[in-house]
């Protein structure tokens, strides 16, 4: 036990030592099915099921036969936008880095740096705009659909960040009950593997060497994924004007991300920027401003409501009730 934990009350538990493997199924030392990939698949699949449910109940204009194409295009936008967003916003040198080994271009090496959620959201919006134009559908209405599904993907993605031991939290105060020690910050594969095999000396070394950190990935899973999902699900219990759900997501997400960044370490090669904010916080401020502009435009629309998941609500019922209210007034 190090000097800081010696100050804790007698019997106080050690910080949790993170020894989770990033592989759900591992074939070789560096190849296998990773939790990170499964997290994305889970998010896309659950979003697909939600679209099928709404389309079969005639609550959205998107036909069930187009659901798989729509989810594929949106997923492609998330992956491409997320990766390009990370390279442009955090490590632009990747754009001009090439090698003779696979995958040849640093941009394609997703394991080096990962993806940026802000870029993924923008990429998704561009992909949805393309799909809406091609199928002659409402871009804003389709954006509502992906907003709820997107929160599910973010939730699973942040859980995968925790399992991977990446995007580490800031050092927690002494005796913080939920502190986590991440061996990945030492970049010592031999020591980590020994600890995973249960070697007592390796585990003791890690406990003595590492500082307890906030489990910021779990905080962000709740703030950026679960909280927006519950809020949007509640708002869409009844049909809403196209854009209400999307505008709500584009406002809630950056606020949640801004708050969550207070527990997360900034990228080592960037550090803190103006006013002590991280790059993620400044991007969230920009997203907040853009969301207010878009929300103002979308909410002025006279488009008919859509969506809703309660059994006793439907877009047609909402329109009928609105007509009856106008006549009674």
Features:
single chain, 329 residues, mainly alpha, two-stranded antiparallel ribbon, 11 helices
Topology:
Elements: H1 3-6, E1 16-17, E2 23-26, E3 32-34, H2 35-56, H3 67-89, H4 117-135, H5 139-164, E4 180-181, H6 189-196, H7 200-209, H8 216-235, H9 244-260, H10 279-299, H11 315-328
Parallel strand pairs: 1-4
Antiparallel strand pairs: 2-3
Helix pairs in contact: 2-3, 2-5, 3-4, 4-5, 5-8, 5-9, 6-7, 8-9, 9-10
Question: Mind describing the biggest β-sheet?
Answer: 2 strands, parallel
Give the neighbour order of strands across the main sheet. Answer: 1-4
Bin the strand percentage: under 5%
* Count of helical stretches: 11
How many strands? 4
Poorly predicted sequence stretches spanning 5 or more consecutive residues? none
Oligomer: single chain
Integer tally of domains? 1
Rg to the nearest angstrom?
Answer: 23 Å
Instruction: Kindly report the average pLDDT value.
Output: 86
Global outline: globular
Task: Note down, in words, how this protein is organized.
A two-stranded parallel ribbon has the order 1-4. It has one domain (33-170, 214-328). The model has no long low-confidence stretch (mean pLDDT 86). α2 (35-56) crosses α3 (67-89). The protein contains eleven helices and four strands; from the N terminus they run αβββααααβαααααα. The termini are far apart. With 329 residues, the protein is mainly alpha-helical.
């Amino acid at each position: 036990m190090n000097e800081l934990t010696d100050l804790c009350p007698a019997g106080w538990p050690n910080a949790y030592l993170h020894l989770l493997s990033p592989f759900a199924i591992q074939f070789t030392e560096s190849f296998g099915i990773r939790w990170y990939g499964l997290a994305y698949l889970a998010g896309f699949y659950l979003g697909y099921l939600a679209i099928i449910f709404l389309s079969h109940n005639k609550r959205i204009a998107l036909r069930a036969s187009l659901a798989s194409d729509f989810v594929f295009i949106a997923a492609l936008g998330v992956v491409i936008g997320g990766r390009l967003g990370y390279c442009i916003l955090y490590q632009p040198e990747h754009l001009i880095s090439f090698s003779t080994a696979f995958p040849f271009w640093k941009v394609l090496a997703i394991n080096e740096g990962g993806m940026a959620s802000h870029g993924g959201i923008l990429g998704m919006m561009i992909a949805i705009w393309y799909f809406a134009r091609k199928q002659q559908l409402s871009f804003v209405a389709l954006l509502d659909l992906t907003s709820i599904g997107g929160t599910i993907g973010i939730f699973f993605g942040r859980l995968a960040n925790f399992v991977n031991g990446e995007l580490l939290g800031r050092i927690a105060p002494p005796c913080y009950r939920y502190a986590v020690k991440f061996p990945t910050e030492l970049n010592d594969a031999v020591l980590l593997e020994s600890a995973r095999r249960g070697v007592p000396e390796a585990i003791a070394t890690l406990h003595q060497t590492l500082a307890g950190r906030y489990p910021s990935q779990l905080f962000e899973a709740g703030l950026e994924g679960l909280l927006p999902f519950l809020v949007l699900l509640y708002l869409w219990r009844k049909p809403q004007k196209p854009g209400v759900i999307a505008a709500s997501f584009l406002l809630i997400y950056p606020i949640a991300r801004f708050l969550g960044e207070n527990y997360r370490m900034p990228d080592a090669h960037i550090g803190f920027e103006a006013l002590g904010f991280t790059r993620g916080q400044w991007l969230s401020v920009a997203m907040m401003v853009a969301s207010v502009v878009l929300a103002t435009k979308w909410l002025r629309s006279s488009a008919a409501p859509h969506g809703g998941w309660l059994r006793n609500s439907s877009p047609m019922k909402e329109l009928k009730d609105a007509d009856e209210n106008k006549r009674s007034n």
